[in-house]
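Risk mitigation, structural track. In case the binding assays with nicotinamide-adenine-dinucleotide fail to produce interpretable data, a predicted complex structure has been prepared as a fallback.
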Amino acid sequence: MPAKDNVQIAPAEGKLGVLIPGIGAVSTTFIAGVEAIKRKLALPIGSLTQLATIRLGKRTDARTPMLKDFVPLAGLTDLVFGGWDIYEDTAYEAAVNARVLEPALLEQVKEPLAAIRPMKAVFDTEYIRRINGPNVKQGGSKMDKAQALIEDIAQFRESSGASRLIMIWCGSTEVFHRPAAVHQTLETFEKGLCTSDPEIAPSQIYAYAALKSGVPYANGAPNLTTDTPALLDLARDRNIPICGKDFKTGQTFMKTLLAPGFKARMLGLNGWFSTNILGNRDGEVLEDPGSFKTKEETKLSVLDQILQPKLYPDLYKDLYHAVRINYYPPRGDSKEGWDNIDIFGWLGYPMQIKVDFLCRDSILAAPLVLDLVLFLDLAQRSGMRGIQEWLSFYFKAPMTAPGLYPEHDIFIQLMKLKNTLRWMRGEDLITHLGLEYYD
Ligand SMILES: NC(=O)c1ccc[n+]([C@@H]2O[C@H](COP(=O)([O-])OP(=O)(O)OC[C@H]3O[C@@H](n4cnc5c(N)ncnc54)[C@H](O)[C@@H]3O)[C@@H](O)[C@H]2O)c1
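Fallback model:
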């Protein structure tokens, strides 16, 4: 008997517009990648929506369709792109400057990339300190800036012919702020926009404009952004899905692979020292202590939540965890991340593990951007609203309902993601109990 969907999913008809604050290394690697894949110049490695399968029913049923055949996702040829940046460079120029992709590959996708000219950004040097650029909206209150973004969104919708839009923040990391009084309700937030309250960050003005325009919002950086009562309420009231924060790539990806393994085997940990060198613009912005603090918070919280030292004091209560990021221009986007991990086993005997990950930040991030865009669009077409916890898989600091601790273990996150898709399509959830095979 065919399964009956738990949600009604509207078909993915027409074009899907992807609006990106921040036309930098990650976003141009994503856009250039999509264009290259469309032209069959390369494969979408790292993307679940393009490559993963999903098991349905029993292990003996032999039903494992591709994810993209199981749920109706927008196709790559349906994607159209736009964005904002403080620099005037086209996406082609920004991609060349980012030095992530080979010039020979970029040459082959030059035409669509060169056609993407960033719109004028909403920018505030109080929130991002190490860079400044000319392509910025001037004058007016923060509410005027929000209105200008709403107009940009409407114009893009019109000019691109997109039937649906998604906004995904790929801008620099803003300085660390906690939610303030102005973020408590939509009313105080809107008043704050009118009085240009200094506690309202540019990324929040973009998010407000997106939600007001009915556009789902994903946050690729660790900034607070939608993680405030005011914007959460707005997303729920308008029936719009949101997700964040901070793409889970590089070192934190490794951490969420290794730490659940140590805990699964009840091995102890007393030290985890992580250090990175990177030389791209992201690294330059993160040299500023305010922006680094935002990043540090999301990077540090991961281990505590995976290891649960309160439940396992003998194993984890004395863990010393430190994360450093050093700006080192010669490496560009090719980051090197070292981890020294001090673990202990039976009778407390110490051991050490060293990880040296020579990674490429934007190469790891680009497929996450693609999946998030396609899944958020799916969520929107399925009438799902507010925080999409099933997309935690993609984030260092997954957003959760207030009072709920986030799930960081990547394998639990993957199970949650796939079970959500099974649930959407009315398939049995997979619990891995499996007793029926032995009856
Ligand atoms: N690459 C990764 O693996 C990874 C992982 C997690 C998070 N991130 C985050 O993703 C973001 C993008 O990373 P990146 O390597 O592409 O950085 P990048 O510096 O190359 O690009 C960011 C761009 O955002 C622009 N920008 C800054 N403030 C803006 C604003 N208010 N409006 C519009 N544009 C603005 C900058 O001018 C820059 O061009 C960063 O916040 C980074 O911390 C990246």
